[in-house]
Amino acid sequence: MNLPNGVLRRWGLLVLAGGIVMGLSLGTRQSQALFMLPVSMGLDWAIEDVGFAFALQNLIWGLTQPLTGMIADRFGPARVIFFGVLLYAAGLFAMAQASDLLLFNLNAGVLAGVGLGGTAFGVIYSAVGKIVPPGDRAFAIGAVGAIGATVQFLVVPFVHEMLNTQAWDGTFLVLAVLLLAVCPLAWLLRTRGAEEGGTGPDAPTMGAALSEALRHRGFWLLLFGFTASGFQLAFLSGNVPSYLVDRGVPLPVAGTAIALISLTNIAGAFVFGYVGGPVFRRKYTLAFLYTCRTLAMVAFISVPLTPVSTYLFAAMIGFLWLGSVPLTIGLIGQIFGGRYLTTLFGFAFLGHQLGAFFGIWLAGYVFDTTGSYSSIWWLSIGAGALAALLHMPINDRELARRKSIEAVLA
């Protein structure tokens, strides 16, 4: 790989920059649940209406990810990250000024949702993967994940404290200013002068790369597996706190469990980002991760619910939480190369977010109709088992592009 002079000197800075941008972006998104009640009470809106805006944000994030990836692969990730941060900050600023529910939905759901798509997993990981030399790439991606998870872990208690000392609209403004402050970090993630490829020769056009991926059985297996993972994670993140309280677990125990998930996610993000590829084959590492996550869920609902069992489950799930993201990005790059990695991951992440949408919605529907989470627990366990099984037969060999573009598209 022909890297620009001085890339080794700025390797640490770009990893730090990517982790900070990604962590602040995802931490801001995660903390938005804390705004539900203050915004609802302050503007006399139903909690359901406020929740819809944040649900719309997740959906827009997923729907725009393929387009965001295409733009990043065409014009470089630095521009996408820069404008993504600006859009996210603008959305938060507008949310602080909102007095109309429709405008709040447009600002929180659409403006912030599009901004989130330019500052989260796909663009950041792909940028680091394209710049850092192959020998150091796994460690760099693992480090970005760990830094991002650490920042994300710190943002939530910061927002909680801010909401205790000032109004919700002022807190939105503070988050907008923090996002604007990290805009210059996008410059460190530019790929100009670095080879835009990953492993092996790349498809010469975006259309050829997309056609190639859509004709590859392994890409569909990976996409469906990532969709099942999204279903499982969304159920856990959106409903475990309610499940614990509904089962009589004290609120402080539930809060500590959520903190444990965030804390152990730091270690998991680094470990799975680092071992995938250089140490173990990514498809088997993904299958192992999904299997462990599923077995942890089976064990949790099979033993008496106590603070100890809750903490053990939270620690295990947190360690397995977001390790699937760098592994999935790495597997796509391993098979199809790095030139259009952000675009291809965008389509995979769209599937993940669609799975997440149904994971949240179906859990609420099942609980409202049955008064219990039991059936959705088992459905989520089945989704995790399916994700593990789908990854086993993936052909993860690097594509040998010996045919012409016409033959590929024929």
TrEMBL record:
Coiled coil: none
Annotated Major facilitator superfamily (MFS) profile domain residues: 11-399
Keywords carried by this UniProt record: Membrane, Transmembrane, Transmembrane helix
Transmembrane parts of this sequence: 45-64, 76-96, 102-126, 138-159, 171-189, 219-237, 249-275, 287-305, 311-332, 344-364, 376-394
GO molecular function: transmembrane transporter activity
Domain of life: Bacteria
Alphabetized InterPro entries for the sequence: MFS (IPR011701), MFS_dom (IPR020846), MFS_trans_sf (IPR036259), Proton-linked_MCT (IPR050327)
PANTHER family recorded: EG:103B4.3 PROTEIN-RELATED (PTHR11360:SF284), MONOCARBOXYLATE TRANSPORTER (PTHR11360)
Protein name, per record: MFS transporter
